[in-house]
């Protein structure tokens, strides 16, 4: 009964990883991406797919994967690819240095270590990167609107990693087959978590990136007429209602205000206490509430489209995020004419 479930998780993760890779490379335009970050994303995806295919091979033939060169390589390369991808999402403006090549050291060391040690080293290094990521996110807590959500999300990943690490340490007593099954299941569950979070909170990468930039970058507003720019922003939002433009981006609004994207992002965060995506979502939801209060006939989809949302799911997610209820529930509370 267990093996069919593992096979199902492997199949799901392989397909899910492919979808996530395509979505990140070609459709997540609101996230600042660099070539090195996209390369790290592709490498991480291909490595995880490769590991899952190796796990499938073990289930079908009983192959001893830990004594396999390709498996050991992928096992040790995953933490480095994870670090490089996470670093690029959070700190894309920080250049890579020569010392960053040290992150590839475990991959080279795998060729000289006993199989059991390769697995232990891989997960210990991965745990170290998880601690680094958690500290980075914790340092952004003042700038992240859903800080508890992000920490809960990372906490689930940490629990999964700790469980697999415990099995790695217990390899001499539990045996490799249990480790292969547990690791395959962990990858499958992790992919399911990522997909679930992106469906519930599509803007998570954008918000985390903005929060990281604001938390760790120097001020870009020196010499800027802050009050004048705030007045211009207020005019563009209240008079022109630019937020109703579905294609409005940080870069487009910054250009309209004669600011750089970084300056506008810092201006909004420092004065309103939210990231740019959250700021726009709140304005769009406020507009939607006004329409829902006076118009009982228009569908929720049409209201969302009028306010700048690209889809019904994005409208519902943002409305619930800001108000704590659905558009339909809000409309029912409004007095009828």
UniProtKB/TrEMBL annotation:
Top-level division of the source organism's lineage: Bacteria
Keyword Transmembrane attributed: yes
InterPro entries: Homeodomain-like_sf, HTH_AraC
Gene Ontology MF: a single term: DNA-binding transcription factor activity
Keywords for this protein: DNA-binding, Membrane, Transcription, Transcription regulation, Transmembrane, Transmembrane helix
Organism: Solimonas fluminis
Signal peptide (from-to): none
Name of this protein: AraC family transcriptional regulator
SUPFAM superfamilies in the cross-refs: Homeodomain-like
Residues covered by the HTH araC/xylS-type domain: 227-333
Residues that span the membrane, as ranges: 6-27, 39-56, 120-139, 151-173, 179-201
């Amino acid at each position: 009964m267990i093996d069919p479930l593992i096979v199902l998780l492997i199949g799901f993760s392989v397909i899910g990883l492919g979808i996530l890779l395509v979505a990140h490379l070609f459709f997540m335009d609101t996230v600042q991406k660099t070539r090195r970050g996209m390369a790290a994303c592709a490498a991480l995806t291909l490595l995880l797919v490769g590991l899952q295919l190796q796990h499938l091979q073990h289930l079908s033939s009983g192959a001893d994967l830990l004594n396999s060169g390709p498996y050991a390589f992928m096992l040790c390369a995953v933490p480095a690819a994870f670090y490089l991808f996470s670093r690029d999402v959070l700190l894309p403006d920080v250049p890579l240095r020569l010392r960053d090549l040290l992150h590839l050291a475990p991959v080279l060391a795998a060729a000289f270590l006993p199989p059991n040690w390769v697995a232990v080293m891989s997960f210990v290094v991965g745990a170290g990167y998880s601690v680094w990521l958690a500290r980075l996110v914790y340092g952004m807590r003042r700038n992240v609107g859903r800080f508890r959500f992000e920490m809960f999300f990372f906490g689930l990943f940490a629990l999964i990693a700790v469980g697999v690490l415990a099995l790695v340490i217990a390899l001499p007593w539990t045996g490799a087959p249990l480790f292969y099954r547990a690791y395959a299941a962990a990858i499958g569950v992790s992919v399911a978590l990522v997909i679930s979070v992106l469906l519930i909170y599509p803007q998570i990468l954008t918000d985390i990136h903005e929060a990281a930039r604001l938390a760790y970058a120097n001020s870009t507003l020196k010499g800027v007429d802050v009050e004048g720019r705030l007045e211009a922003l207020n005019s563009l939002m209240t008079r022109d209602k630019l937020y109703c433009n579905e294609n409005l981006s940080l870069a487009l609004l910054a250009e309209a205000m004669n600011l750089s994207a970084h300056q506008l992002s810092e201006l909004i965060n420092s004065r309103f206490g939210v990231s740019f995506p959250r700021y726009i979502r709140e304005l769009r939801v406020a507009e939607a509430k006004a329409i829902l209060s006076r118009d009982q006939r228009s569908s929720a989809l049409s209201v969302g489209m009028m306010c700048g949302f690209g889809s019904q799911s994005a409208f519902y997610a943002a409305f619930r995020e800001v108000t704590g209820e659905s558009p339909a529930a809000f409309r029912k509370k409004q007095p009828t004419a």
